[in-house]
TrEMBL record:
Membrane found in the keyword field: no
Pfam families recorded: Aminotran_5
Molecular-function GO term, any one: transaminase activity
Taxonomic superkingdom: Bacteria
SUPFAM superfamilies cross-referenced by the UniProt entry: PLP-dependent transferases (SSF53383)
Gene3D superfamilies from the UniProt entry: Aspartate Aminotransferase, domain 1 (3.90.1150.10), Type I PLP-dependent aspartate aminotransferase-like (Major domain) (3.40.640.10)
Domain (Aminotransferase class V) ranges: 50-237
Protein name: Aminotransferase class V
Originating species: Marivirga tractuosa (strain ATCC 23168 / DSM 4126 / NBRC 15989 / NCIMB 1408 / VKM B-1430 / H-43)
Keyword annotations: Aminotransferase, Pyridoxal phosphate, Transferase
């Protein structure tokens, strides 16, 4: 796969290695948004079918990315919204517990913690050992060891959002299935740039904000809910999620029945005429590239960085256990993180600091010059 910077409008003097913070707009996504704004200038262009058909197209595209039925996909405004729909429908028995991982993203942790408090069950936070090498494999093993018949739900990100460590979702999903445990995954920091299969991994709910690796606009997202959720209780009761919601002549019949699959979990006004075309355009481009190709491109791109770290003897986990699009690096105690970040910013290099690590998150708009510029600054501090 070749560099795709020509499809974006990033300035040439900016080294944007911060896709995990927020993706830049594709030119096509920007244009779709502009056209969406202009469309409402004359509302006669917006037909009744436009409230529903574009959403079905978006669901179909997302389904192809995750290998999930479009019928089981809902459009959401945020990851926290999708998570609440998923967690509030998990059945709980007395004496059960819930599981998440250490330093999980706040929305995941806080939503699960509230669920545990309301249901008076214990929240188990699984921590890795205090080492870097072998950290990921050992972490997965500890998660597996704690899942049992008394586990109500496991809530975790597909990769660790701070470090990029890849959990073995397939093994965790198999253990959850065997113990009748709900498996809820926040895919915001990997879906779109790293392959995932909700069927193979036995994922019950996959929640994704779209403004990062799905390359969409802010305040939009997509969620997959397995058939376990088809009889669940949604957060809200929109007319658009009803079985005959598309028939405007019957709106005041006030139907009780929801539409099929995960329709009930759609956010109200999900047919956003500005944002949804942007999401669609982004998903179409991701499918053209392919998440596996994106991952391979990023892996090759980071080769000089990995060689640099080996020369500097900076400890890190095995490359196959760290995602290539979100590469977390623990800093030696001798390095002043604030000075490093100031130096990077002064050289127009944009990455994130999370905890005691830096997070390098490239995409197909990055090239060797971006990585070499990063290495030059790191070399002055390491």
């Amino acid at each position: 796969m070749e560099n795709q910077k020509h499809l974006f409008t990033l300035p040439e003097d900016i080294h944007y290695l911060n896709g995990a913070y927020m993706s830049p707009n594709l030119k096509s996504v920007e244009q779709a948004g502009i056209e969406g704004v202009r469309r409402k200038t004359n509302p006669t262009f917006i037909k009744e079918n436009d409230f529903f058909q574009p959403a079905e197209e978006v669901k179909s595209l997302f389904g192809q990315i995750i290998n999930g039925s479009s019928r089981q996909i809902a459009i959401i405004p945020s990851a926290s919204y999708g998570l609440m729909n998923a967690i509030r429908n998990v059945p709980v028995k007395k004496g059960q517990h819930a599981i998440t991982v250490n330093e999980e993203f706040p929305s995941d942790h806080l939503t699960l913690r509230k669920f545990c408090q309301e249901n008076e069950i214990e929240l188990e936070v699984i921590k890795p050992t205090n080492t870097i090498l072998g950290r990921t494999q050992e972490w997965t093993e500890k998660i597996l060891a704690n899942i049992g018949e008394d586990t109500a739900v496991v809530v975790m990100s597909s990769i660790h959002w701070m470090e990029g460590l890849k959990f073995d979702l397939k093994m965790i999903g198999e253990k959850c299935k065997a113990t009748n445990t709900y498996f809820i995954v926040d895919g915001t920091q990997s879906v779109g740039a790293l392959p995932i299969d909700v069927q193979e991994c036995n994922i019950d709910a996959l929640i994704c904000a779209s403004y990062k690796w799905l390359l969409g606009p802010y305040s939009t997202g997509l969620a997959y809910y397995s058939t376990k959720y088809n009889g669940g209780e949604p957060i809200e009761y929109s007319w658009m999620t009803r079985k005959d919601g598309h028939d405007f002549s019957k709106l005041t019949d006030y139907p009780e029945e929801f539409g099929g699959g995960a329709m009930r979990y759609n956010v109200g006004e999900f047919s956003n005429f500005i944002a949804l075309p942007m999401v669609k355009s982004a998903l179409e481009q991701i499918l053209i590239w392919g998440p596996e190709n994106i991952q391979n491109y990023c892996f090759s791109l980071l080769s000089p960085l990995r060689e640099f770290l080996e020369e500097k003897r900076i400890a890190k986990d095995k490359d196959q256990l760290i995602s290539a699009h979100l590469y977390g690096l623990f800093l030696p105690s001798s390095i002043d993180l604030n000075k490093l970040m100031e130096d990077l910013k002064g050289n127009n290099i944009h990455i994130s600091a999370r905890g005691n690590s830096i997070r390098i998150s490239p995409h197909v708009y990055n090239d060797a010059h971006d990585i070499n510029s990063l290495i030059s600054v790191l070399d002055k501090h390491f």
